[in-house]
Design brief:
The protein is of the alpha/beta class. The protein has eleven helices and twelve strands. The protein is rod-shaped. Belongs to the LysR transcriptional regulatory family.
Length: 303
């Protein structure tokens, strides 16, 4: 059974107005054109659609059953139009974000709450995991974007590496907080909480200390900067981490000081290289990048 949407419109219009003439006027077409649409539809469904009573066309019992279904069709079409408009305006859809665990508990919750507040029709999946897993998801196109660090590239993934400033984090009231800026020389006797030894950031930090002739007094090795900040907030050791992470714990019994010479931590934003690119995910990446503004280093280096 094949029929055209215009035939359904003519059928519904005649049923509402009781007249082919009035139906034609409401549809903005001629009376003969409306009659032809109605006749073709009647032949397609193989039933009589109307009977005439006192000069008014009245739907038959079979036609009344069809009318309820036709009404649902037009309701669905209207919903589809509204959904398309919402998607175009980025106010509906589903956004899938994979990120490092630290982001899922610090920066992103507040940022996403504000992002969703302006887009009430949008739903969200936020999945934290280790960098290796995030890369797998991006290759498999399971997520719209990923937030990781120190990403060096993969053919199936597009990426933007953002250099983030670093900062020294000390317990509140620590004697070194009297200084506005700290160097490896100032930290030579301090117990350091630092990134894993197999991380590129640790390598850069270790090389910086070596350039100053200072041996790092390593104490605790952690995967996440957030862990280091929490431990320092408990009065244990000092750490050098991303300024972005340090800021999230500013009110947790810590002091933040500039660290020189400047080294940076590379934050990486990943997107699948193939597949459709939703406007919603592009909006989120723009919003996320804006939030990084105060922490981005002006270095000309590349990862």
């Amino acid at each position: 059974m094949k029929f055209k949407l215009r035939q359904l419109e003519a059928f519904q219009a005649v049923a509402k107005t009781g007249s082919v003439t009035r139906a034609a006027k409401s549809l903005g077409i001629s009376q003969p054109a409306t009659s032809r649409l109605l006749s073709d539809f009647s032949k397609t469904v193989a039933i009589d659609l109307f009977r005439r009573e006192g000069g008014v066309l009245i739907p038959t019992s079979e036609a009344r059953y069809l009318l309820s279904e036709v009404g649902r069709v037009f309701d669905s079409l209207q919903h589809l139009e509204e959904l398309n408009r919402d998607l175009t305006d980025r106010t509906a859809g589903h956004l899938r974000i994979a990120c490092l665990p630290g982001f899922a508990t610090t920066l992103l919750p507040e940022l996403l709450a504000e992002f969703l507040k302006e887009r009430p029709g949008v739903s969200l999946t936020l999945e934290p995991d280790r960098p290796e897993r995030i890369l797998e998801w991006m290759i498999g196109e399971q997520y719209d974007c990923g937030i990781t660090d120190e990403f060096t590239g993969h053919p199936a993934v597009e990426h933007t590496n953002v250099p983030i400033k670093t900062a020294c984090v000390l317990p509140k009231g620590h004697p070194l907080t009297e200084l506005g800026c700290l160097s490896p020389l100032d930290l030579k006797n301090e117990r350091l909480i630092h990134a894993r030894r197999d991380s590129p950031f640790y390598t850069r930090l270790s090389n910086t200390f070596a350039d100053y002739g200072v041996l790092m007094n390593t104490w605790v090795e952690v995967r996440q900067f957030s862990t280091a900040c929490i431990m320092v907030g408990q009065g244990q050791g000092v750490t050098i981490v991303s300024a972005l992470d340090a800021e999230q714990y500013r009110n947790s019994n810590i002091e933040i000081r500039r660290f020189e010479p400047e080294i940076h931590h590379w934050l990486s934003i990943l997107k699948p290289a193939s597949g459709s690119r939703s406007l919603l995910s592009l909006d989120f990446v723009d919003t996320f990048m804006d939030s990084l503004g105060p922490y981005i280093s002006d270095t000309k280096d590349r990862l």
